[in-house]
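Two records follow; treat each independently.
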Amino acid sequence: MRRASSKVLFAVISTRTELLTFLYQTVSPVLISRFKEREESVRVDILQTFTELIRVTGIGRGYASKNEVSRKKRRTTAGISEQGNSR
């Protein structure tokens, strides 16, 4: 359920930029508190959601690059690095 919640928040952050102020006030403290999650896959999803919140803020201010990496590619890359660390 935690991963699903993170993915829903990711979708809301990506599509509802008019809610950024509200999301920073309510969602970001909760996401930060969940960085201590015991499951690696949940931590990765939470970190990606928080990163999206920061990235969307940059787009609103004109700082994001045009060649953004998709979430799917980041998830694939994260899976590769997790496999490399499981020695």
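The next record belongs to a different protein.
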Amino acid sequence: MPEGIPFDVPQAEIRRYHNMAAFEFILHKYDIDDQVLQNIGKIIHDIEINYWGRKRYEESKKINKMFQKIMDSSNSTEECLERGLTLFDSLYSTIIKSPFETGEGKKD
């Protein structure tokens, strides 16, 4: 197996933590302040960290279903990755640039 950077496994630096998704950790570690990526991070947090709880953002359930459909219908890891990256590109172009509001109408 070729060497690489461990990702989202217990011994990896870049992984999910009890209160932070791996995506959010990357944004924090590299001081990325792009508001669209911050908003995508909130959705990922809602899906990944708030797994069992009530979702804070309306977009979370819809996007989670889209990713699940990609995973369920892809014939290979490569196809799943390619389709997932395409979805992320689409999200980046459609997610609003202002801070998200929670489902309760409060700014996050």
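Discussion point: The chain has a mean pLDDT of 88. How would you locate this feature using only the token line?
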